[in-house]
Known about the structure:
globular
Amino acid sequence: MNIKKYMMWGGVALTMGLSSCVGDLDLQPNDPNNVDTSKDPNFIENSLAMCYSGVTCSGYSGPGSSYVGGIDAGTSAYHRMVFTLNEFCTDEMMWIWPGDDSGSAGEIMSSTWGATNVYVKGAYYRFMGHIAICNQFLRNTEGATDEKTLEMRAEARVLRAYTYYNLCDLYGQSSFTLDTDPLGQDPVQISRKDLCDWIETELTDIVDNKLISENPSYGRVGLDGAEALLARLLLNAEVFSGTPRWADCQKRCENIIARHQGGGFQGSGLAEHYLYLFARDNNAYMPGGSNKAENEILFGFAYDADHTQSYGGPSFVISGTITNSHYIARQNYGCSSEWSCIRGQQEMAERFYTISNQDVRDDLWVRGVLPAGDGWDAEDYSDRFLDFSGSWNTTGGNMIVKFTGRERNAAADGGWNWDTHIDEAGNNVVDQIYFPVTTFASTDQPVIRLADIYLMYTECNINGGVGERAKALDYMNLIRERAGAPKVGYSELTKKGLMDERSREFYLESIRRTDLVRNGMFAGANQAVWQYKGSLDNNEGTRISAYRTVYPIPYDVIAAQPEFKQNPGY
């Protein structure tokens, strides 16, 4: 099954009522289009497609629809919510309009959110809605014995575990419900440790018993994705459960690395070209993608400009980072509209200044004071943000294009020069265009890449003292060499060295907050400080309280189920 083919039909796949998973909330996972399963030979595949489109699409009837009420459909898109809560509160990204959604955007940027924050609520509802969809698929296929359906059930279980992972990471304790619960029964609240344990048990069963394909069809999760998610869970186990699991995480990393040896960059399985991983045709690097030797995207979601339209995912990141068509012409990036609202923080930019200018990972950025002309005002992109004005807008920061609607160039020399520059007339120049310009992106969404697995191994050595130190350094240098950065020695095999490298490699990939929390740099005694952290009125930033390492349980959830406990501090 090609998942993009079926996603357009997934919205009519689920029969019976999907119960609300957060009590009496404005959550609407009920599909009005019922299907007679006895007359639909594709019912099971269509239903599974709904489990995937529950992540990629906001609703059943196009990008403006949503099965979550009370929040804009585009704003509440699954990967947009994950991005918002994991990037805008860190030293990597800034949303330049803090007044959006009654100030909820500014609360995320300054880490001053509360239990009524629109994004805090929207993400929780979105996640619980997706869990309801996966649970319903598992109910509908209960008792199946054929191999094909059993494998699809394993996929749905992994997708559900992925959403529970996000709840565990962002909220700690959460609502919890399974397909085995009676339909319509209210969820219970589960502790963070118990949720972490459940996710581990679920994924371990699927991975170790090989209930899922090692060679999945394009766009579908397979063994690599399931084990990569397990590795990420174990990497964060000390935060989630109180017990470090460095050796267990490292073992999972070694399993995945061994399956990818022999192809790609230096035989590592990594893609030869870093920026190609974020291009319009990055489907080649996805599970089941055409470039088998370089299937670096171990866990990802397929998007398509025609069949999987969303104001979240790569469409959101591409449009959000395209800033001012005079200098970064949106057409050069396959994007028909620019939102000009996501900028890079000074601290992230400075991490690139300490290494060779041959590092390709920031080649699409534009910095400096740009020339005025043709009716456009010059703007200062010199890293540091200026104070917010009365219009709740700001200037400064960096234009940080990484995800694009551009296609890879298959030329034997490795493709075009991805560098962009301003010509004498003040225009952003790209030599050739090989791609259509669309409203929605066909760029797929990476969730976990093989590069992350290599750096997980390194982190397990640095933070946990397990594994081989020489191998840990080799793996960090492998990532750097692929990017064109010079090798480093053991003096860089430190927590700070690793965290800087992870930021350079994974910015815009929605994991920075988790990395900072895990390494004690988000809050607490050893936290880092960046612009506007702690207060939008403080350009320098300030420290925040340790309880903000998790978001609050939304007010409406506790109002609906008063027996639920709020996270400490809120």
